[in-house]
Backbone:
């Protein structure tokens, strides 16, 4: 498998992860008062599976598709109004988090402890960008922004980090098997 | 949102035949107009979107039902606004005072998001993914440092993957229900049981697609050659979208 085909495969996988991030906004698992939406779970999974460059590309394509008007944001939202609306900070946070978590994973050579710490940092980055953005656009106090935009989602995020790691551990061999160079076929014996 | 609302639905209407560049430009213009639109303008725009949905022969009621999760999100926005904006309380409630101005602002914000979403669904329903890919490539070509072909191809793939994943997720959900896994209390198990097989299946699909693209010599030097040609109908539609935006800004 040459470099071009590895890039092609990574591009297809990055597109797939962008589609999964979009679908993650449609699927809600009803758990307790706040249902778990799988969007940021797929951002973390993309970062761990694809690395910093392609995970960031995946999220950038997702944001570009939404900005073009395709209904890919949470619940089927679309457009610049969404991107620059109250939830826009979380969307831009996905981009930064994907790159940072991917970078941590690459630098740590996929050590479990470092990857879990990376996902915690990634989740904090999403809130660090999303909550002040929410506060500014809704014109509410920082405490209220934390109450409506962070605290109810923290238990769900802890679950998502645990689930992401389990999923990545299971899916990673499948992804990397396709990236590994194929063993050359034995040359055909010349016909005498 | 269910698979019914997302994806291309073929029909012989003028909106289906419109130049995709015009549709994308109209989307961006409407998105920008929505940021400054008032209540009356939002009602007008939502009415236009619903009329267009009927025109392209889509089941409007089914679409609205499929947007129920989105409605929950919008209701959340209205509630937060109503609870956090100071002003005269509605219904005389003292414990959770919903303010009138807050409710008004929340409804306006939710209306803006809803109308752009309806137009976005209209765009997805009337445009083939390959056309969206070509139009995005056309728009990104002059932007420096952006690999326009790659970005456009990735958007095209994303649009194709979403209905596939939604179908697979629905099948997965039914399989889990048949095995009573949705009755399990442990949310971690429920999430992993849903996501792990879904990811494995979609990765196999992506793998096959990458192999098929490689077999067809896909590369950065391939030809695109979508024949772009603006007709009077396209210019009229662009002018109509511009007119709608100006009307929305004028009536406030």
Residues:
């Amino acid at each position: 498998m040459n470099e071009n085909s590895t890039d092609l495969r990574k591009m297809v996988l990055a597109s797939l992860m962008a589609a999964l991030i979009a679908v993650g906004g449609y699927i809600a698992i009803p758990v307790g008062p706040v249902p778990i939406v799988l969007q940021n779970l797929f951002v973390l999974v993309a970062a761990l599976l694809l690395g910093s460059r392609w995970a960031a590309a995946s999220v950038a394509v997702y944001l570009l598709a939404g900005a073009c008007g395709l209904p890919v944001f949470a619940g089927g939202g679309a457009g610049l109004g969404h991107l620059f609306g109250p939830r826009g900070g979380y969307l831009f946070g996905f981009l930064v988090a994907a790159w940072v978590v991917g970078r941590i994973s690459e630098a740590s050579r996929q050590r479990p402890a470092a990857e879990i710490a990376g996902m915690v940092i990634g989740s904090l980055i999403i809130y660090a960008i999303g909550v002040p953005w929410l506060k500014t656009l809704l014109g509410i106090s920082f405490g209220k922004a934390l109450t409506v935009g962070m605290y109810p989602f923290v238990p769900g995020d802890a679950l998502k980090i645990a689930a992401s790691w389990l999923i990545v551990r299971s899916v990673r061999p499948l992804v990397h098997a396709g990236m590994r160079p194929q063993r050359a076929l034995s040359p055909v014996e010349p016909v005498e | 949102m269910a698979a019914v609302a997302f994806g291309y639905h073929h029909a012989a209407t003028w909106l289906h035949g419109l130049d995709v560049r015009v549709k994308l430009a109209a989307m961006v213009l409407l998105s920008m107009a929505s940021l400054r639109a008032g209540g009356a303008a939002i009602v007008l725009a939502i009415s236009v979107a619903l009329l267009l949905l009927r025109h392209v022969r889509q089941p409007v009621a089914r679409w609205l039902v499929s947007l129920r999760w989105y409605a929950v999100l919008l209701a959340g926005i209205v509630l937060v606004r109503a609870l956090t904006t100071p002003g005269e309380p509605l219904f005389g409630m003292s414990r959770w005072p919903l303010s009138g101005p807050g409710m008004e602002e929340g409804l306006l914000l939710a209306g803006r998001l809803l109308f752009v979403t309806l137009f976005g669904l209209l765009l997805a329903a009337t445009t083939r993914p390959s056309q969206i890919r070509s139009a995005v490539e056309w728009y990104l070509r002059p932007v420096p440092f952006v690999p326009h072909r790659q970005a456009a191809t990735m958007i095209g793939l994303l649009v194709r993957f979403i209905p596939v994943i939604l179908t697979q997720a629905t099948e997965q959900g039914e399989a889990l229900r048949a095995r009573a896994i949705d009755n399990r209390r442990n949310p971690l198990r429920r999430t992993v049981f849903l996501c792990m097989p879904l990811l494995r299946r979609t990765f196999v699909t992506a793998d096959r697609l990458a192999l098929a693209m490689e077999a067809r010599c896909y590369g950065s030097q391939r030809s695109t050659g979508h024949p772009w040609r603006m007709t009077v109908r396209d210019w009229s539609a662009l002018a109509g979208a511009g007119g709608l935006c100006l009307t929305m800004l004028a009536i406030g």
Notes: The CA atoms of residues 62 and 144 of chain B lie 42 Å apart. The two ends of chain B are 30 Å apart (CA to CA). Chain B has two domains: 1-127+229-252, 147-221. The longest helix of chain B spans residues 148-178.
